[in-house]
Amino acid sequence: MNDMMATMTANAEATMSAPKMTARDVKVFYGEKQALNGVSIDVHSDLVTAFIGPSGCGKSTFLRCLNRMNDTIETARMEGNIELEGHNIYAPDMDVVQLRARVGMVFQKPNPFPKSIFENVAYGPRIHGLSSTKAELDTIVEQSLVRAGLWNEVKDRLQDSGTALSGGQQQRLCIARAIAVDPEVILMDEPCSALDPIATAKIEELIDDLRGRYAIVIVTHNMQQAARVSQRTAFFHLGTLVEYGDTAEIFTNPREQRTKDYITGRFG
Amino acid sequence: MSSARIQTDWASPVMQARVRRRYAKERRFRFLGLAALALAGSFLFFLLGTIFSDGYTGFLRTEVKLSVEYDAFELGIDRSAIEGAGGENALNTANFQGVMMAAATARAQSLGVAAKDIVSDGAWLALREAVRENPDLIGSRVDVWVPTSGDFDLLGKGLVERDVPEANRPVSDAEIAAFDRLKAEDAVRTTLNTTFLSMADSTSPELAGIWGAAKGSLLTLAVTLLLCFPIGVMTAIYLEEYAPKNRFTDLIEVSINNLAAVPSIIFGLLGLAVFLNFFGMPRSAPIVGGLTLALMTLPVIVIAGRIAMKSVPPSIRDAALGVGASQIQVVFHHVLPLALPGILTGTIIGMARALGETAPLLMIGMRAFVTDVPGGLTTPATVLPVQIFLWSDEVARGFVEKTSAAIMVLLVFLMLMNGLAIYLRNKFEKRW
Q1: S-S: B119 plus which of B84, B104, B347, B357, CB 3.0-4.6 Å?
Q2: Please, which residues bridge with residue A218 across strands?
Q3: Given a cut of 60, is residue A149 above it in pLDDT?
Q4: Closest by Cα among B94, B103, B106, B93 to B143
């Protein structure tokens, strides 16, 4: 409880800072079907923002708008405005490759490349030319693995295949891979849903460690997880943003009846 | 509804009969499967057994020992002519045929048959090779092993049924008697048929070789592969990764699938009309054969490539896009390496089909009677399956074994290609 109080005060100060990403009236259509009806959210740079809501509520769809991963879906169409530090990310002059380097992503199922651990982490820096020498690249790889809390487990077998690691280690490897490009925002799409409780705890710890350095947005099914790791929570239902506010506020004193029903387990 | 269900009696006779029926059904099905497998296996065994038992003698030949006088006057050359600048020319103009004929006639007269009954028309070639290697032979008389005639070859391999009336067999009684006398003198032997492995087609079975057709096949397939693989893979990449999904690309997809099912002879006609008649390319040439087979193989490779790329898990694409890889980087760094085993397997299966293809090559003139091993892409050539087709049509008894031997060579080629496909698949396959 003390922890929660501390987080709440931290939130109150942090919300004052300028938002890293702002979304205004975002609508997404898959063909004829509308998946999001006008979502507006600010993502703050040194906070963890959690998106919660029942399956099919549009939280993952919205997350994928933030680094334009929905572009790869042929039928998806997006309306509205999303800005990264004041620049519209859907503007014609926005380079989507650079956007995805600045807004990294971690997926639901751990998806390391079928290459060595080293290559997995080195891939991003290599394609973006972030290192000019082998030594620099080594440093980036080591730093990223250290930050992802994986270095001690893999430092002696960097040439082993990334797919040979356990599920939790694979997911941390994916986080290291995202960190290696030094993004400003990290999007996490239910990063723990395929993991056991111990691996989940490690990832949550890691998210806590990464807070402050990166703006983190996490989609989760698990409300306790949202309560544990985030400072801001957004509740989605049927493609609509129902409520968005400080995590402590949402979980203890929600304004909307639907939020209350969901949090108390009445539906979902 | 409150009516309670009657408790199921799992031990009742009805139930037990049901269990027995289930087991019987299972046994019947397994038996049928096994029978099908055995039948298929026996067909294959019969086929391969027949080919092998008919064909292995095609790799052997019978030779007869003759005493040859390398008479300088008769040959029309001497040592100095061979060792001089025009040595090769001198060898080619020398009268080895006369020398051979003299030696064979002498021997044949003592046996009561004609010279051509004993030695092959091409036996003098052996003399020329001997002199080329050792010019000192000129002026001396030595025993030489030379290929026998086709009839003696059959006798040497035991392929003549001696109890059939003389009129009904290719070999006369006099020839059999002559052969038996030579055999008793140890003047005939059976050796590896180097002619078959190193020469091209001939009208005489004992002089016919498979290497011409094999090299023709290799040249043709090289052209096919060089055209098909890059074009097919690029097409597959574009259609799978870049092309928008609309009516037009649907139409292209349907067309490619249809092309893969078009009978091969149609591609032959297309090749005839386009490459020979319109572009005026040479007839019977490996380059035209390769182009025609490329048309036929291309859709197979495109389809195999697309399937292989489709089977790469989307999570790998997401991962690469997620760290900011561009579309081309996603394709060449991730999708293509993972799809490569499938693409290679599809390519080799397509190439194997091209290797075994006869009909389209008949249309562009590759059924020509070619007695030289092809030297390049534009020289006349034939290919293995066409050679088999041609030999199977020959009258001379000696071509039966040649046909089967050629089939064996073709099968070895196919097995090598399939082996390569399996090797490449295992080498490049990665798990994720």
Answers
A1: B104
A2: A50, A188
A3: yes
A4: B103
Q: Which among A97, A104, A114 is the nearest to B432, CB-wise? A: A114
User: How far is Cα B114 from Cα B110, in angstroms, rounded to an integer?
Assistant: 10
pLDDT value of position B2: 57
Cβ separation A104–B322 shorter than 8 A: yes
Instruction: Specify the pTM.
Output: 0.82
What number of C-beta contacts closer than 8 Å exist between A and B? 71
CA distance B390 to B399: 10
pLDDT, one tens digit per residue, over A24-68 is: 999 999 988 999 998 999 999 889 999 999 888 889 999 999 999
Which domains, from first to last, does chain B contain? Answer: 66-192 (no CATH), 211-428 (1.10.3720.10)
Pairwise CB contact (< 8 Å): B320 & A104: no
Distance CA B129, CA A92 (A): 77
Phi/psi for A238 (5° steps) reads: 50, 45
Asked whether the beta carbons of residue B315 and residue A109 sit closer than 8 angstroms, the reply is yes
User: H or E segment at A96?
Assistant: helix A96-102
Q: Which residues, at least 6 apart from A214, have a Cβ–Cβ distance to it below 8 Å?
A: A45, A179, A183, A184, A185, A186
CB-CB under 8 Å, A178 with B323: yes
Give me B384's structure tokens.
């293995």
Ordered by where they begin, the domains of chain A are 2-263 (3.40.50.300)
Could you read off the pLDDT of B367-388 as tens digits, one per residue? 888 888 888 888 899 999 999 9
B55: nearest Cα among B369, B398, B413: B398
Residue-wise pLDDT tens digits, B214-232: 999 999 999 999 999 999 9
From CA B103, how far away is CA B119, in angstroms rounded? 10
With beta carbons less than 8 A apart as the criterion, state whether B131 and B82 touch: yes
Interface test with A, best of B312, B315, B323 (most A CBs within 10 A): B323
Contact A207, A172 (CB under 8 A): no
